[in-house]
Design brief:
mainly alpha, flat
Length: 129
Protein backbone atom coordinates (compact mmCIF):
# COMPACT_ATOMS: atom_id res chain seq x y z
CA UNK A 1 0.00 0.00 0.00
CA UNK A 2 1.44 3.34 -1.02
CA UNK A 3 1.42 6.44 1.12
CA UNK A 4 -1.19 8.02 -1.17
CA UNK A 5 -3.46 4.98 -0.82
CA UNK A 6 -3.02 5.11 2.94
CA UNK A 7 -3.97 8.80 3.01
CA UNK A 8 -7.01 8.16 0.81
CA UNK A 9 -8.10 5.29 3.03
CA UNK A 10 -7.79 7.51 6.14
CA UNK A 11 -9.94 10.14 4.45
CA UNK A 12 -12.51 7.48 3.53
CA UNK A 13 -12.63 6.35 7.16
CA UNK A 14 -13.13 9.93 8.29
CA UNK A 15 -15.88 10.51 5.71
CA UNK A 16 -17.65 7.31 6.73
CA UNK A 17 -17.46 8.36 10.39
CA UNK A 18 -19.03 11.73 9.55
CA UNK A 19 -21.81 9.98 7.63
CA UNK A 20 -22.44 7.60 10.52
CA UNK A 21 -22.56 10.47 13.01
CA UNK A 22 -25.02 12.35 10.81
CA UNK A 23 -27.29 9.29 10.77
CA UNK A 24 -27.14 9.18 14.57
CA UNK A 25 -28.38 12.76 14.88
CA UNK A 26 -31.84 11.67 13.74
CA UNK A 27 -32.15 9.34 16.73
CA UNK A 28 -33.16 10.25 20.26
CA UNK A 29 -32.31 9.13 23.76
CA UNK A 30 -30.05 6.20 24.44
CA UNK A 31 -30.36 4.94 20.86
CA UNK A 32 -28.55 8.10 19.76
CA UNK A 33 -25.77 7.49 22.28
CA UNK A 34 -25.42 3.84 21.25
CA UNK A 35 -25.35 4.84 17.58
CA UNK A 36 -22.63 7.42 18.26
CA UNK A 37 -20.59 4.88 20.21
CA UNK A 38 -20.94 2.35 17.40
CA UNK A 39 -19.77 4.97 14.89
CA UNK A 40 -16.72 5.73 17.04
CA UNK A 41 -16.04 2.01 17.41
CA UNK A 42 -16.16 1.41 13.65
CA UNK A 43 -13.80 4.35 13.12
CA UNK A 44 -11.28 3.14 15.73
CA UNK A 45 -11.30 -0.39 14.34
CA UNK A 46 -10.99 0.78 10.73
CA UNK A 47 -8.04 3.02 11.64
CA UNK A 48 -6.32 0.19 13.52
CA UNK A 49 -6.89 -2.20 10.59
CA UNK A 50 -5.48 0.37 8.20
CA UNK A 51 -2.36 0.82 10.32
CA UNK A 52 -1.90 -2.93 10.65
CA UNK A 53 -2.18 -3.39 6.90
CA UNK A 54 -0.05 -0.36 6.02
CA UNK A 55 2.87 -1.28 8.24
CA UNK A 56 2.37 -4.80 9.61
CA UNK A 57 3.99 -5.42 12.97
CA UNK A 58 3.18 -7.29 16.15
CA UNK A 59 2.42 -3.97 17.84
CA UNK A 60 -0.08 -2.90 15.19
CA UNK A 61 -1.83 -6.28 15.21
CA UNK A 62 -1.98 -6.09 19.01
CA UNK A 63 -3.36 -2.55 18.75
CA UNK A 64 -6.03 -3.83 16.36
CA UNK A 65 -7.08 -6.55 18.79
CA UNK A 66 -7.17 -4.03 21.61
CA UNK A 67 -9.21 -1.58 19.52
CA UNK A 68 -11.78 -4.27 18.76
CA UNK A 69 -12.07 -5.24 22.42
CA UNK A 70 -12.34 -1.67 23.67
CA UNK A 71 -14.86 -0.76 20.97
CA UNK A 72 -17.07 -3.72 21.86
CA UNK A 73 -16.84 -2.81 25.54
CA UNK A 74 -17.73 0.84 24.93
CA UNK A 75 -20.79 -0.12 22.88
CA UNK A 76 -21.87 -2.70 25.48
CA UNK A 77 -21.56 -0.17 28.30
CA UNK A 78 -23.56 2.40 26.38
CA UNK A 79 -26.22 -0.21 25.65
CA UNK A 80 -26.49 -0.90 29.39
CA UNK A 81 -27.40 2.73 30.02
CA UNK A 82 -30.93 2.17 28.70
CA UNK A 83 -31.56 -0.25 31.56
CA UNK A 84 -32.18 0.68 35.16
CA UNK A 85 -31.59 -0.73 38.61
CA UNK A 86 -30.28 -4.25 38.98
CA UNK A 87 -30.58 -4.99 35.25
CA UNK A 88 -28.14 -2.15 34.53
CA UNK A 89 -25.69 -3.44 37.14
CA UNK A 90 -25.88 -6.97 35.74
CA UNK A 91 -25.41 -5.67 32.20
CA UNK A 92 -22.38 -3.59 33.21
CA UNK A 93 -20.83 -6.53 35.07
CA UNK A 94 -21.34 -8.81 32.06
CA UNK A 95 -19.78 -6.20 29.78
CA UNK A 96 -16.84 -5.79 32.13
CA UNK A 97 -16.41 -9.56 32.42
CA UNK A 98 -16.38 -9.99 28.64
CA UNK A 99 -13.93 -7.10 28.33
CA UNK A 100 -11.53 -8.51 30.93
CA UNK A 101 -11.71 -12.01 29.43
CA UNK A 102 -10.96 -10.67 25.96
CA UNK A 103 -8.04 -8.58 27.28
CA UNK A 104 -6.65 -11.68 29.01
CA UNK A 105 -6.95 -13.65 25.77
CA UNK A 106 -5.02 -10.97 23.87
CA UNK A 107 -2.35 -10.87 26.56
CA UNK A 108 -2.00 -14.66 26.49
CA UNK A 109 -1.76 -14.66 22.70
CA UNK A 110 0.94 -11.98 22.84
CA UNK A 111 2.90 -13.95 25.43
CA UNK A 112 2.61 -17.05 23.24
CA UNK A 113 3.92 -15.15 20.22
CA UNK A 114 6.80 -13.75 22.27
CA UNK A 115 7.67 -17.19 23.65
CA UNK A 116 7.61 -18.68 20.16
CA UNK A 117 9.88 -15.91 18.89
CA UNK A 118 12.33 -16.54 21.74
CA UNK A 119 12.26 -20.27 21.01
CA UNK A 120 12.90 -19.66 17.31
CA UNK A 121 15.77 -17.32 18.13
CA UNK A 122 17.23 -19.92 20.45
CA UNK A 123 17.05 -22.56 17.71
CA UNK A 124 18.81 -20.30 15.21
CA UNK A 125 21.42 -18.91 17.63
CA UNK A 126 21.72 -21.33 20.58
CA UNK A 127 24.70 -19.48 22.09
CA UNK A 128 23.09 -16.03 21.88
CA UNK A 129 20.15 -16.70 24.19
Amino acid sequence: MSKAQYKTAREDISDQYKTDRTACKAMVGNAKHVCSEEAKARKRIAEAELKANYSPSDKHWHDLSTARIEAAHAVARETCESLSGNARDVCRNEAKGAYLAAKADVKLAQQTVNAAARYDAKQVHPDAV
